[in-house]
Amino acid sequence: MTHDFSIIELMLNASWVVQAVVLLLVSVSVMSWAAIFRKLFALKRVRRLTDDFEREFWSGGNLQDLYHAALHRAREGSPMERIFASGMREFVKLRERRIHQPDALLDGARRAMRAAYQRELDALEVNLSFLGSVGSVSPYVGLFGTVWGIMHAFTGLGGMAQVTLATVAPAIAEALVATAIGLFAAIPAVVAYNRFAHDIDRLANRLETFIEEFSNILHRHAGGH
Fold it and tell me: Quick one: pLDDT at residue 2?
C-alpha cells in the first residue's frame, strides 16, 4: 500500500538542519520576489519618465525653462533630467564666475554630468547584486540541505535489520525537497537579474548618448564651433 507525502509533512519529519535550510531558502525566495517586483515597477517608471523628458527636451523648448522645471521636480524626475540639471547647474555656475572659455565651461559641465550619471547608475543597480547572489548561492544551499538530509537518513537506517525502498524513500524525499526549493529560489532570481541587467545597460546607453548630445548643445551656447 502506498502513502503519499505532502511537502509540509516531509519537512515536519526532516532533521532540524534540513528544516533550517528550507526555512532560509523560503525566506530568501520571498525577499527575492519582493525585490523583483520593486525593480520591475521602478524600471518601468524610469523608462516612462525618461521618454517624457527626452520628448520635452527635443521639442525645442528654452534650456533655462527646462532647467528650472528639472530643479523643481528633482526627486520625482528621471535620471536623464537630473543629469541635465547637474550639467546645466555647473554651466550656469561657471558663467556666473565670469569663466567664458568654451573648453572650461564644457569640461566643468561634462564632469558634473558624469558624476550625476554614476550616481543614477548606482541607484538603478540597487538590489541587482542581491538577485545575483540568490541565483548563484541558493542551489548550493539547497544541495547542502540535501546532502545533510541523506547523511542523516542513512545514519538512521544503519541500525535497521532490514532496509527496503519503502523505508528509504521518505527520508531521501525529505532531503531532496531542499534542492528543489533551492532551485525554486534561484531560477526566478537568475532570469530577473539577466533581464534587469539588460534593461539597465540600455538605459545607461541612452544616458551616455544624452550626455554627448547635450555637451554639443552646451558647446554651441558657450561660443564654440
Answer: 45
The total of structural domains in the chain comes to 1
> CA nearest 89: which of 121, 56, 112?
112
Rounded distance, CA 182 to CA 26, Å? 8
Q: How far is CA 182 from the centre of its chain?
A: 20
| CB-based burial, 83-111: b 16+ in 10 Å, e otherwise | bbbbbbbbbeebeeeeeeebeebbebbbe
Quick check: 144 and 175 in contact, CB under 8 A? no
List the domain range (segments joined by +) for residue 63. Answer: 7-221
What global pTM score does this model have? 0.81
Q: Residue 217: inside a domain, yes or no? A: yes
Per residue in 161-198, pLDDT (tens digit) is 565 556 666 667 777 888 889 999 999 999 999 999 99
Q: Which residue bears the cell 547637474?
A: 86
Residue 2 maps to a domain: no
